[in-house]
Design brief:
It is built from ten helices and 28 strands. By secondary structure, the protein is of the alpha/beta class. It binds flavin-adenine dinucleotide. Flavin-adenine dinucleotide binds next to helix 2, helix 9 and strand 25.
Length: 431
C-alpha cells in the first residue's frame, strides 16, 4: 500500500482527521517501523497488538507476557459447574505471531517514560515510540484479615482463571452432600461486576444435580449489584431463591454481609454482625490496577487515569492504559470493554504515527451471564465520549438489559449467544 493510500485507510479505519497543530510524532511521519511495546497479553493487550498490525503493518509490535498461554476469566465460571474444562478456555499466542506480533515471555517490572523503555524482570529493555499497558487487576491483600496470597492457594479467589479455578471446582466436587459454599463478593469497582452472582448460579447448577441439599451463600459489602433483578428472578426460577429451601442466599451490606476476617483453620468468616462457617470458601478480594501500573507511576488512587479519546495516560504521555487497570468510567471492567478500548487506542496510536488526529471514539460492551443450562441474561450498551467532561456515556436507547418478561426460549437463546460471543471475542483478540 502506498503511503498516501495507507493514510486514507487509517483515516477511514479510525475516523481520524489530519492534525493541524503540533503532532506527537512529527519525526515518524511516513517513516518506517515505529515501535509499540505492549505490556500484558490479555484482552486489551492482544486486541491492541493485532489491530495495530492490521491498521499499519509497518509498525513493529512487541508483546510482553509472562504466561505461555492466556486462560480467559470470561467463561471460567462454567468450569465450576463442570460445563467446560480449563483447557477449553486456554489459548496460545500463535495467532498473534501470524499477524507479525513478537511475543516475549517475561514479566515487565517497570516502564521508564523518560527513556521510553519497557524493562523486564529478565533484565531486557525494549525501546518504544508508544507503549500499551493492559495488566488487569491486582488485589488489596490487606482488606480481609487473615487472607493473603498464600492462603488463597487453598481458599481460592479464582478471580484469575487457571490453577485456582480448578482447585475451587475440586473443592465443590468433594464437599459433602448438604455442604455449604460461601462466596465473598468484592466492593465496587472490580472486574466483571456480574461475575460473583453468575458464579453462585454456576455452582448451584452443579449442586442441583449432584448435591441437592447444598447451600451457596453470598456475603456482599454492597447493597446492590449488576443485573440484580434478573439474577434474583433467575435464582428464584432455577434454585428457589426467596423460599425456605433456596439453594442460594445473598446477604448485602445492610444485613451485615461485609466480611472483615477469616480463620482458615476453622473455615470461619467474621462478618460485621455474625460469624459464618463453610465447607468451601471463595473470597474475591477488593481490587486495584495491576502491580506494574503502580511501579510505573501510572496510577492516581487505585486506577490509571486516561484521556478517553485515546486511552493515553494522564500521567505519562506515550503510554496508553487499557482495560481493567484504567479508569474508564462509565464503562465496566469487562473483557468486551477492554477489547473495544484497545481498538480505540490502536487507531489513535496509528493516527498519531501518521500525522493525523484521533477520531471521535465510540465503544461497545455486552456482558452475558449464564445462570442455568438454558437460562442466560445480558446487559449491553454502546458508548460515546462526552468530550467536555471526558466521561464515557452510554448512548440512550443503544442497549439495555434482557427483558424481565423474556420467554424460556429467549433465555435459552441467550446461552447460545453467550457462547458465540465468547468464540468471537477470542478470535477477534488473538485469532
Ligand atoms: C469469573 C470471571 C468471569 C468473567 N466473565 C466475563 C464476561 O462474561 N464478559 C466480559 O466481558 N468480561 C468478563 N470478565 C472480565 C474480563 O475477564 C476482564 O475484564 C478482562 O480480562 C480485562 O482485560 P485486561 O486486558 O484488562 O486484563 P486481562 O485479560 O486480565 O489480562 C492481563 C494480562 O496482563 C498480564 N500481566 C500482568 N502484569 C504483567 C506484567 N507486569 N508484565 C507483563 N504482563 C503482565 C497478565 O498475565 C494477563 O495475561 C470475567 C472475569 C472473571 C474473573
Amino acid at each position: 500500500m502506498s503511503d498516501f493510500n495507507r493514510r486514507d485507510f487509517i483515516r477511514i479505519a479510525s475516523g481520524a482527521t489530519l492534525a493541524t497543530g503540533v503532532l506527537g510524532f512529527p519525526g515518524l511521519l511516513l517513516a518506517a517501523g515505529p515501535k509499540v511495546v505492549i505490556v500484558g497479553g490479555g484482552v486489551g493487550g492482544c486486541t491492541a497488538a493485532k489491530y495495530l498490525r492490521k491498521l499499519d503493518p509497518r509498525i513493529d509490535v512487541t508483546l510482553v507476557e509472562p504466561k505461555a498461554a492466556y486462560t480467559s476469566c470470561f467463561m471460567s465460571n462454567e468450569v465450576l459447574s463442570g460445563d467446560r474444562t480449563i483447557e477449553s478456555i486456554t489459548f496460545d499466542y500463535e495467532g498473534l505471531k501470524r499477524h507479525g506480533v513478537k511475543i516475549i515471555s517475561d514479566r515487565v517490572s517497570v516502564i521508564d517514560p523518560e527513556k521510553k523503555q519497557v524493562v523486564t524482570d529478565g533484565g531486557e529493555r525494549f525501546p518504544y515510540d508508544a507503549c500499551v499497558v493492559s495488566p488487569g487487576v491486582d488485589f488489596k491483600w490487606d482488606a480481609i484479615e487473615g487472607y493473603d496470597a498464600e492462603v488463597a492457594e487453598t481458599i481460592p479467589h479464582a478471580w484469575f482463571a487457571g490453577k485456582q479455578t480448578v482447585t475451587l471446582r475440586k473443592q465443590i466436587e468433594s464437599m459433602p452432600e448438604g455442604g455449604k459454599v460461601i462466596i465473598v463478593a468484592p466492593p465496587n469497582p472490580f472486574k466483571c461486576p456480574p461475575g460473583p452472582y453468575e458464579r453462585a448460579a454456576q455452582i448451584a447448577m452443579y449442586c442441583k444435580h449432584h448435591k441437592p441439599k447444598a447451600k451457596i451463600l453470598i456475603l456482599d459489602p454492597k447493597d446492590a449489584f449488576s443485573k440484580q433483578g434478573l439474577f434474583r428472578q433467575g435464582w428464584s426460577k432455577l434454585y428457589g431463591f426467596g423460599t425456605e429451601n433456596s439453594m442460594i442466599e445473598w446477604v448485602g451490606a445492610a444485613g451485615g454481609g461485609k466480611v472483615e476476617a477469616i480463620d482458615p483453620s476453622t473455615m470461619t468468616l467474621q462478618a460485621e454482625i455474625e460469624e459464618f462457617q463453610a465447607d468451601v470458601i471463595n473470597i474475591i478480594p477488593p481490587q486495584k490496577a495491576g502491580k506494574v501500573a503502580f511501579a510505573s507511576d501510572l496510577v492516581d488512587g487505585d486506577w490509571c487515569p486516561v484521556d478517553k479519546m485515546t486511552f493515553e495516560s494522564k500521567r505519562h504521555p506515550g503510554i496508553h492504559v487499557l482495560g481493567d487497570a484504567s479508569n474508564a468510567a462509565k464503562m465496566p471492567k469487562s473483557a468486551y470493554a477492554a477489547n473495544s478500548q484497545a481498538k480505540v487506542a490502536a487507531a489513535a496510536i496509528v493516527a498519531r504515527f501518521n500525522g493525523l488526529e484521533p477520531g471521535d471514539p465510540t465503544f461497545v460492551n455486552t456482558c452475558y451471564s449464564i445462570l442455568g443450562e438454558e437460562h442466560g441474561i445480558s446487559v449491553a450498551a454502546v458508548y460515546r465520549l462526552d468530550k467536555e467532561t471526558n466521561v464515557i456515556e452510554s448512548i440512550k436507547g443503544s442497549g439495555g438489559l434482557s427483558p424481565m418478561d423474556a420467554s424460556d426460549e429467549q433465555r435459552k437463546r441467550e446461552v447460545t449467544y453467550a457462547h458465540s460471543w465468547f468464540k468471537n471475542l477470542i478470535h477477534d483478540m488473538m485469532g
